[in-house]
Predict the structure.
Amino acid sequence: MFDAKSEISRLLAPGIPEIEPQQIHDMLEVPPNPEMGDLALPCFKLSRILKKSPVRIAEDLSAIVSKKGSTEDIDRIEAVSGYLNIFLNKSVYIRKILSEILQEGNSYGSSDIGRGKTVVIDYSSPNIAKPFHVGHLRSTSIGNSLYQIFAFMGYRCVGINHLGDWGTQFGKLIVAYKKWGSEHAVQENLIDELVALYVKFHKEAEKDPSLNEEAREWFTRLEQGNEEARSLWRWFIDISMEEYKKVYDLLGVEFDAYTGESFYNDKMEPVIEELKGKNLLKESKGAMVVDLEKEGMPPCLILKTDGSTLYATRDITAAIYRKNTYHFDKCIYVTGVSQSLHFKQWFKVIEKMGYSWYKGLYHVPFGTVSIGGEKLATRTGKVVLLDDILSRAIQKTRATIEEKNPDLENKEEVAKQMGVGAVIFSDLFSNRIKDVSFSWDEVLNFDGETGPYVQYTHARACSVLRRAEDGKTIRTSVETDPAGKSSKAGHEMGCPGEMTSKSASADADFDSSLLSSKEEYQLVRVLSAFPDKVKQALDDLEPSILTRYLVELAKEFNRFYHEHPILVKEKGLRKARLALVQATKATLATGLRLIGLHAPEKV
Ligand code: ARG
């Protein structure tokens, strides 16, 4: 990858032999104002090491570099009050960046830093017989995006849905079903009915506490493999899974394994023995715990008084199983911030067991989601159901398409891709730890900082490329086209003619000196930042870095698009601008894919 900072630091290195080129690299800044250069070295940082004033350092360095005979990368260097301001040769820079993007296409920004490494990502993980709510959507979209990013960086990824499919709630559900439920009602209303039964159980148990006893008995039967209990439990899972799968299909999310909590039922015993053997288990009020007092945390509960296992017992067992099965380098858990203590506790238990790989365990917490503005009608009162949100988003997008581009061929598909995309995008827009508030108007706005805005910009780039292709045969339509002057959605949309792979690969042979405006240069700069952004998103386990980058890139592209006609008569200029459009299109598409969105070519 062409990296201006590296080039410059290599060039400056002989002038500052006291420090490593990497340190120079890290000191280089992007000045706030382009008049101060494309990069600047604040020389006061070197003053102590070189025992010279910053002004002197800047002057000396500029003299050294100028004497050396400049490289094609640099236009000029100026020493200004202790800063070394570096002006890149814009046309060389543009040529290098764009050629690289055009050459790499869909893999621009990828790397192989993960080669030979495995990362397990535990995400989504809803609880059986309970609805899939917006919190699970956040886990799903963050987890899925991390999966895409890690895969893009060469890691082998294993996506796991750690379904909440075990626990005493199944005893309650069985009791409720047997007392007040019917097969017909469950078949008819699916999860809604299961939730209703569960809610009814709690209401009734307040009046009649003996129901709790009954539920415990049924859970014990389930644990012991009682046939009736097993088959009801299986049925509740199947019904829930069917609904979750619909959501996953809509979101375009897949998992490599659906190994839920129950998967570890027969695997916990040896782990409990191991904890005992390592002298980590101690009794506390009849329960068995790992004491974490020294670590300043409450004890980690391993066995209840009645000998049954807990959430943490299953997580510890699952982590050991995953290490032995997948030999992961990292195992990442994406859940709400309310579970932070739980993960801290059992990560500590793994450490105390003597497993050094505890260092590869990461909890990736996120804030809560609330619905601002308009209230949604929900079926359970407080929880906003995900399929309500998604169908609402699709319906609203469909209406927008009807209004702006009624002739679009695959309206239904695009409405789905953009409606769902809008929801995922807004979910991934803020830093994950921040609480997010969901507002329909903001989420679905085609002009705001939204998924549809980025997707629309991508489609606009596709449309320009398509018209460029058509232009080879229908000249007049190109010449009379007011390209770049329309900002109305729909104007550019749905142009006839499919994108061919030929038109998708713009000519890499173009004259970059023709891209001389500040909008063009600025767009190339934003494009050049993409690989760093991907890397940063991976390092920080933070997809929002990419989400926000995409908005910046889309804005920059639209600025260019509105200022400069692309399909102009002069062949050279047209070719150069098309190269820029093509590079933007490729980068937008990759970025969208990495956050789990489709990039439709017509909207
Ligand atoms: N089922 C849990 C919940 O809905 C999330 C599970 C997360 N994964 C894990 N290994 N604990 O809150």
Remarks:
- Confidence is low (pLDDT under 50) at residues 373-383, 473-505.
- The chain is about 55% helix and 10% strand.
- Residues 122, 125-127, 162, 164, 315, 333, 335 surround arginine (CB under 6 Å).
- The longest helix spans residues 183-207.
